[in-house]
């Protein structure tokens, strides 16, 4: 006989326990053991950022647990996250909400993310506690790291970019958070450059060796000027940020992150920051570092090898030739004498000229008796990076 569900849903009392309906092998139940330890001191860490008077606020641990749910299940928007937590029993259990507890309003996340969470650096504090827990469980070996960056599209229209000299910030625009932070960063960079120039004039160097002199960006977003005009994301030109990851290769654990504009030189500089921060925070000093060709520049490789790290990084080299003449790889570099040896065994003479743009290249002319004359022009010129020794190590 076919059954029918015709019971009245107006029952007055229910016996219900959220813990009974969450499976033992559910992802959130397995995670909760570690999350409880990581968030143990969150209230103490955030206490200085709350007032001692007024109405009680939304529990910050609740908001962070909800953000973890959103991250694990790909819920990117707070409005939808609040709806899902309201409906999903396992989400409620993980967030320590009972059936009749209210879910925070979605605007609460935006306010706290831009104020308390940002000022207290609580999200980095939690991230580092998670990494420490992974280390305690033997998931981080600390011998080999890999670094890479992915592009995240900025909340800025790619059709409204302007050249820097076309921007005329109004008082209303300067009051917006994104523009105010951008202007403050420009002022800080100008002060830092002035201090570096003064330091160089008295023989010292306080600058960042990973950021060579660069031209200003061609296009800036008026609504999010810190983002970068990039074509990295699927070859589609847009304004975006680079999410840089430093990964321990043993179990693919991310040990540090750094957000930058989506520009290659910012990504390379961020890697230096992440390696140094990981060393100071966790005492991890990798023996090897893997990266793609974007990181294979002389200054970065000099830092890597200087720190005692073996670079598994392809050198960014555009000297390969397909016109029948010798490529640079066919010339051997003698680091002791700081000269190149051509395929015929002759030394290359140097003009000693330093290029003004890169400030790192000196020209070399192929020796007249070099075998290269048989395959190309009788006089060839090549450029030498000031860190040619470390480039040879990487090659």
Count all strands and give the number: 11
Terminal Cα span: 78 Å
Give the helix proportion (percent range): 25-40%
> Any low-confidence stretches, pLDDT <50, length ≥5?
354-367, 371-380
Instruction: Tell me the major beta sheet.
Output: 6 strands, mixed
Strand percentage lies at 15-25%
Kindly state the mean pLDDT as a whole number?
Answer: 81
- Which geometry do the CA atoms define? globular
The sequence of SSEs as H and E is: HHHHHHHHHEHHEEEHEHEEEEEEH
Radius of gyration: 28 Å
- Which structural class do the helices and strands define? alpha+beta
Count helical runs: 14
Q: How would you summarize the topology of this molecule?
A:
Layout: H1 18-21, H2 27-38, H3 42-46, H4 60-72, H5 78-87, H6 89-94, H7 107-114, H8 116-120, H9 122-136, E1 144-153, H10 171-174, H11 177-201, E2 228-230, E3 238-248, E4 253-261, H12 264-282, E5 288-290, H13 298-306, E6 310-312, E7 332-334, E8 339-341, E9 349-354, E10 361-365, E11 381-385, H14 388-394
Parallel strand pairs: 1-5, 5-6
Antiparallel strand pairs: 1-3, 2-3, 3-4, 7-8, 9-10, 10-11
Overview of the structural elements:
This protein has about 400 residues and is an alpha+beta fold. About 35% of the residues lie in helices and about 15% in strands. It contains 14 helices and eleven strands. The protein has helices spanning about 20, 25-40, 40-45, 60-70, 80-85, 90-95, 105-115, 115-120, 120-135, 170-175, 175-200, 265-280, 300-305, 390-395, and strands spanning about 145-155, 230, 240-250, 255-260, 290, 310, 330-335, 340, 350-355, 360-365, 380-385. The strands form three sheets. Strands 1, 2, 3, 4, 5 and 6 form a six-stranded mixed sheet that branches. Strands 9-10-11 form a three-stranded antiparallel sheet, with no helix packed on it. α13 links the parallel β5 (about 290) and β6. The longest helix has 25 residues, at about 175-200. It is globular. About 25% of the residues are buried. Mean pLDDT is about 80; it is low at about 355-365 and about 370-380.
């Amino acid at each position: 006989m076919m059954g029918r569900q015709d019971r009245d849903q107006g029952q007055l009392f229910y016996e219900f326990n959220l813990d009974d309906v969450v499976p033992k092998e559910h992802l959130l139940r397995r995670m909760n053991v570690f999350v409880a330890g990581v968030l143990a001191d969150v209230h103490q860490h955030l206490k200085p950022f709350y007032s001692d008077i007024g109405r009680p606020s939304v529990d910050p641990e609740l908001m962070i647990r909800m953000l973890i749910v959103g991250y694990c299940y790909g819920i990117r928007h707070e409005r939808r996250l609040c709806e899902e937590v309201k409906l999903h029993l396992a989400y409620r259990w993980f967030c320590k909400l009972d059936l009749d507890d209210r879910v925070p309003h979605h605007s609460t996340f935006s306010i706290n993310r831009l104020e308390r969470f940002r000022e207290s650096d609580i999200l980095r504090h939690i991230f580092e506690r998670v990494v420490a827990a992974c280390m305690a469980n033997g998931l981080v070996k600390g011998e080999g790291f890999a670094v890479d960056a992915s592009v995240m599209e900025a909340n800025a229209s790619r059709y409204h970019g302007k050249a820097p000299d076309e921007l005329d910030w109004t008082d209303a625009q300067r009051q917006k958070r994104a523009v105010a932070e951008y202007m403050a960063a420009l002022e800080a960079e100008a002060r830092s450059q002035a201090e570096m120039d003064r330091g160089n004039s008295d023989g010292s160097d306080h600058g960042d060796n990973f950021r060579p002199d660069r031209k200003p960006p061609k296009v800036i977003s008026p609504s999010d000027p810190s983002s970068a005009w990039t074509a990295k994301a699927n070859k589609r030109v847009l304004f975006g940020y680079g999410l840089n990851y430093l990964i321990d290769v043993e179990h693919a654990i991310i040990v540090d992150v750094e957000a930058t504009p989506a520009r290659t030189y910012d990504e390379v500089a961020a890697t230096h920051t992440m390696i140094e921060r990981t060393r100071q925070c966790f005492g991890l000093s990798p023996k090897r570092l893997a990266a793609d060709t974007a990181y294979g520049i002389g200054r970065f490789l000099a830092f890597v090898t200087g720190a005692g790290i073996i670079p598994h990084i392809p050198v960014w080299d555009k000297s390969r030739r397909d016109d029948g003449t010798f490529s640079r790889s066919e010339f051997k570099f003698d680091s002791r004498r700081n000269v190149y040896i051509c395929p015929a065994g002759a030394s290359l003479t140097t003009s000693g000229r330093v290029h003004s743009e890169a400030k790192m290249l000196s020209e070399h002319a192929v020796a007249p008796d070099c075998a290269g004359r048989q395959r190309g022009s009788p006089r060839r010129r090549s450029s030498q990076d000031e860190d040619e020794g470390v480039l040879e190590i990487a090659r």
